[in-house]
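Structure Section — protein described below
Tokens — whole-number codes for backbone shape
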Amino acid sequence: MGAPRQKQWTWIVFGVFLTSCLPLTIRADEGAIQKETVAKSTSGETVKMPVNYNRAMLVVVSEQGVAGVRFLDAFERGNKTGNGVVGVSYEWRFLGREADAKEQTGRGRVFAKLKDSEVQKGTFDVQCGPMSLTWSYRQQKSGVVAFDPRNMSVHSLADNYFTKRKGDPLHKPVDLRRFLQAEANSNGSQMGAPVYYQDCAVVVKHPSGLAIFEFGEPFEHETDKEFPHYGIPFHGRFLSPGKPTREHNGEVYEERFLRGGFIKSQLNLEVGPLQMEWSQGDNSLGWVYYAPEQTPVWIVEKGSLETLIAALSTPHKSEETKPAPILEKTP
């Protein structure tokens, strides 16, 4: 299945949410070589995060506020030989931190000019209100964003959370304020985010520490008349201050859907005290579900994993203590 599963339960909140929301200052100069741009435009080591234009939206949190960004209409012009222009359009929503802040919206476009398949120049700023984020080209339907995790926080969601869904009156766009702070009246509803298994890792901030999940090779668990059932092995680590690292090897898979639920299935990524629900997409991706005000999630390239862990393991004076999440099924 290519879309996140509809959730049929909620979370009750009682846990600790730590988040650092510092100034977002990533920028790229027009005409600069792209690799040099990333290095110059951040104050520290960067984390790289893949973005699939047809699946994901981004939520960017900074001292100014929070923005949602959705990419659409990727284009290539004269690029069959690696000598052309590639890019993608995007739209954004921005909400400031002020109590009376009103949401702003806008559109933009980023592009790169290639010569012998190498980036020569372009426009790399994804501008969303007063914030900007750096984009780089990967291939026609996907790109990469690089960010300094000590200065900002970037999270992934399914792209259908960006706006209202036609024909579905129950579906609502994501409330961006959920990424700013835990709300006392929030029901902690889960939202889905796509995870591409190859060269990607999932990092989850839990009240007791950090959970990290890395994936192996997908396998076909069972095939029925409608669609194949894919599973994925995973390796989990749980890092707690002053305690030994806890590790767990497991696998998740869907097998049969019966009377509104899956049977003979394993649907939770688990390590230490953390359980996070997973569902299948296809043999290259799955979906994970989380409540951002309770257990925020980062989906990053493996090469950036240790940089992100180091940043998230360093407390900052702006971090706030919130209650811990307890999972409770809806009756």
Remarks:
- The chain has a mean pLDDT of 78.
- The first strand starts at residue 10 and ends at 14.
- The chain has two helices and 24 strands.
